Amino acid sequence: MLTSQRKQLILDALKRDGQVIAKSLSSEFAVSEDTIRRDLRELAADGYLQRVHGGALPASPAAVDLAGRQGIESASKAAIGKAAAQMIVPGQIAIVDGGTTAVQLVRHLPLDLRATIVTHSPTVAVELGDHAGVEVIMIGGRLYRHSMVNVGGAAIEALSHIRADLYFMGVTGVHPEAGLSTGDLEEAYIKRALAARAAETVVLASAEKLNAASAFMIAEASAAHAIVVEKETAEALTAPLEALGIAIVRA
């Protein structure tokens, strides 16, 4: 069997089963585990999968830059943002992450809402300019241009003085075993810090992020109190998350 054929069969198995195990693939193809690990390394380098201990999981196609993400299922992101916006009630303090879905969230907030929004995203803060009743607290730090959010020690230190009711988290991967993940280490650190400052964490997850993983883990999936998904998201994707006690909100 040619290497290209074996790689395609690996990708087919990954799509069918949601994960692949190196030892099982070695037996199936009658090749060494070193050969399979090399295949997985090369497929990971091309962005087709995310390697984990003992095998691989689907890679999230959401791990592209902000400009690229703006073109991914904009209608579904708007629906998710609208549903998430309805969770904020007057008087609350809510932390809103960066990203295209988070922008949709703040765009759907009522203009007469009186609440406090904490964000480390300049884009999100600017979107709230016309909301006269919303107090905007901007968390500073080093600008991470890939996602247009502030990161680093200064941002994490500023968060230590905040206690919020809700945190709306953006991720690039949600997996019942691999947890909540993102494609940058510093982003993972600040998302973890943001979650620690809120009573409840709500994850915003369009379909391409479910049952997928990125390189840097933020937290176990159970750190999410709720996950907002598209209305038509398959039960097969949400049932393993519900089994962990996570509420699934369909937008």
Description of the molecule:
The chain has 251 residues and is α/β, with parallel strands linked by helices. It has 2 domains: 56 residues, Arc Repressor Mutant, subunit A, CATH 1.10.10; 185 residues, 3-Layer(aba) Sandwich (Rossmann fold), CATH 3.40.50. The strands form 4 sheets. Strands 6-5-4-9-12-14-15 form a 7-stranded parallel β-sheet, sandwiched between helices. It has a 3-stranded antiparallel β-sheet with strand order 1-3-2. Helix 10 links the parallel strand 14 and strand 15. The radius of gyration is 19 Å and the shape is elongated. The N and C termini lie far apart (45 Å). The mean pLDDT is 91. This is Transcriptional regulator, DeoR family. InterPro entries: Carb_Metab_HTH_regulators, DeoR-like_C, DeoR_HTH, NagB/RpiA_transferase-like, Tscrpt_reg_HTH_DeoR_CS, WH-like_DNA-bd_sf, WH_DNA-bd_sf. Keywords: DNA-binding, Repressor, Transcription, Transcription regulation. One of its GO terms (molecular function) is DNA-binding transcription factor activity.
How would you briefly describe this protein structure?
With 251 residues, the chain is an alpha/beta fold.
CATH class of the largest domain: Alpha Beta
- Element order, helices and strands? HEHHEEHHEHEHEEEHEEEHEEEHE
Radius of gyration: 19 Å
Q: Count of DSSP helices?
A: 10
Helix content: 25-40%
Kindly name the structural category.
alpha/beta
Q: Describe the main β-sheet briefly.
A: 7 strands, parallel
Can you tag this structure with a few keywords?
251 residues; alpha/beta; Arc Repressor Mutant, subunit A; Rossmann fold; 2 domains; seven-stranded parallel β-sheet; 10 helices; 15 strands; 37% helix
